[in-house]
Amino acid sequence: MISETIAQRVLQAALSTGGDFAEIYCEDSESTRLAMTDGRVENASYSRSRGVGIRVLCGFRSAYAYTADVTESALLATAKAAAAGLRQEQAGNTALGFRAVCYANREETLFSPVTNDMRVKLLKEMYAGAKQFSGEITQVECGYSDKIQRVTVVNSNGLWASTVRPYTRIMVTAVASAGGETQTGTRSPGFGRGFDVYESVMTNELGVEAAKTAVTMLHAPECPASLVPVVIDGGFGGVIFHEACGHSLEATQVAKGNSEFCGKMGQQIAASCVTAVDDGTIDGEWGSLRGMDDEGTPTQKNILIEKGILKSYLVDMAGARRMDHPLTGSSRRQDYSFAPTSRMTNTYIAPGSDDAEEMLRTMGEGLYAKQLGGGSVNPMTGEFNFAVAEGYWVRDGKIVTPVRGATLIGKGGQTLMRIDRVGDRMWMAQGVCGSQSGGVPVNVGQPRIRVSEMTVGGKGEKL
Amino acid sequence: MEYERFRQELFRAALNEGCSAAETFKQEGESFSVSILEQEIDSYSVSRAFGVGLRVQLGGKNGYAYTEVLEEPETLVQKAMDNARSIENTDDHPMQTACDYSDITPLQDPLSSLSEEEKIGLAMEMERLVLAHGEPVLKCAGSVVETGRQTVSIHNTLGLAAEETRGYSMLLAEPVVKRGDEVRNSYAFRCADTDIRGLTAEAVEKAVGKLGAEAVAPGKYRILLQNEAAITLLQAFSPMFSADMAQKGLSLLAGKEGQVIASSIVSVADNPFEAGMPRAFDAEGTPSEKTALVECGILKSLLHNLKTAKKAGCKSTSNGGRGSAASPVDVSPSNLYILPGECPAASLMEQLGNGLVITSLAGAHAGVNRVSGDFSLLASGYLVENGSIARPVDQITVAGSFLKLMSGVIGVGDDLRFGFPGSSRFGSPSLLVESLMVAGK
Fold first, then answer.
1. Of A118, A247, B163, B340, whose CB neighbour count within 10 A is largest?
2. Whole-prediction pTM value?
3. Nearest to B176 among A66, A69, A380 (CB)
């Protein structure tokens, strides 16, 4: 998209007001989305997005400008607009030559040879699985998306790095209704791979699982409001760590002193059974970055918490300027319209040594949260919340009934210290995390864990 | 390639290839944003965005393709036609024809005439005002000024030509307060308004008001939902008013037109002319119209675009929406709000007597079920005893069902306020409701 000569000129223009670092982020992405309602394709759309974001740093100051016009004159104007943001007048230095690094070298079927018929087939299989599960399934919504993101990052340190990131995801939501009541169940796996990944995805089974959740919740009483032990299953259950801790470890918060975990490096912030990892290198995962982050820094496996002790934050270039901390390959952005910042990739609580059945058996009365919905957090205070999509009430260590409408709330630091069991089998699930630099694909994960006490919201009477 | 020529080529290629109609939806905009920290520019961003969405009609089906690159119009047409061929839904989705539009009058925006320097100065002044409050204010985590302009142009081969430029501006401050080890934060914002004294005073008051907050015992409480909390809930459940959701069996309001769905003191409207964020036409080019959704508790209408209206045998309510130029046409609100009542906030507090004032709700993207109408959300606010504030409250959840809540409204404040502007905007006054289930300590 951009030649070496133009890149030189653009970086020069970006540094013309005294910036000490300038960066060009070029993106060219293509995506296709389909939506199906009631077994029939309802919408299909294709989009191509191409543009450039130019960033200039000067000490703690940062200026960003982006444009969809990639002609040389537009790029120079954009660079000057960013430079003007520094409000200074003296030229900085730029690199004379670039070291090229290319991370896109994998052989696979991406999306250009994929036809809509192939995509629709996946939707139909999910639909059939859900619809045929029960007569109480009154509606099924399915979705498909794929995206190929081509990224090149050039900066004034002489870096010229590029990668190609494929993404694809399918979604099925089953709606169960009876007697004027309605409940839903959803499954939505995603992958950082080409279309061939679907050879090993049981699409029909996803529909069945979504329908099973919906029908189970349809016949469940409302969850009672309570303060009880909670067992949270693996997979999307890992959203608890994402919200309760992950966001508060991002330089976005920590660098400016806006996190409850500021200044806690080397200290205990979680129970000693907790080890947590953020790893953008895992092959083919939804949250992986194909070799480099959106500043061109190589991705790496970051141990965030080891046996309860804080070992690392997630740090991008701007964050590193305020913190005494190396880069962690964690800088991300939704697209060229966002300046990058530190974000999570594939984040999980590592497998522990506890028995998954024992932790239920010995919990007394409480909630078993089998499927979680999304959540959110205020990183400044650590106050988080998330929804339980499929929950069960436990008494005397035995499941007595499914319960609907539960919410879990708490404060991050407190909750991490209250984890008293970590199971020995970890798995992950997919989500889209929204924050300062837009929506980015992330994996969350954990083994089944237990929290000794949490506030459970719901509108039910005591069971 | 110039845009006009690109558009003509798209239309020609589409009609040549057998499409019965084609439409372009172009968005072009510029934005400015600055955030100040410790009287320095912490982040600064300017942009020029451009994109064009093509919709073709082929054999009665719509197909979409979007691009930011004005090259190879034939390829884009082929992509859109491929997508149209995949559509199995048989509902007719007509395109709008040539229309006349009424003039709209946006609020006079005092930020529109400011230079960049003046906007940066305003953000710095906001931070100084926050810090000037002194203890317990620790810092201002963000002091932001944003402005932007966007031009939307819709053209189609049936003669539609609609173009409009819409501007916006926003100021936001986020104070952080600290007492002992306890840290709290909050924010306040203003749109098209430079009242930074009012803004910063409100933001600081909200943050300070949280100091010392604790949970309450679980149980049923009478609740005063302050306007901002009511907005969160209304926004989360607004898809219930979409005829598209209703026709798919995903809204509890399906088939309820003419029936009582809320307390008789509740009225809800969708008003595209509302001065804070007005528009002359919707994303299908249908001229704007104000729609009464609920009048004195009775459901009068749902929100329609051309497709849902055709299916229901009524007129579009000018609520065709597109999340962006890259998204297909859907149904979305313009300015959707609960109409204000006559109760001053103080009298609602007296009427509350003993109960909870909920000032904010969090987690609405996950803790609400738009289909079942149920919600369970993280809440904070105040405990009220005998009509006056006893202490701040946090770490509780409130749970209920949206329609039961609307039926249980016993007081409507006179303090209508709107939330963040986006492709839609939501507003509500404070609402006094009979009871909600609360979880706490």
1. A247
2. 0.93
3. A380
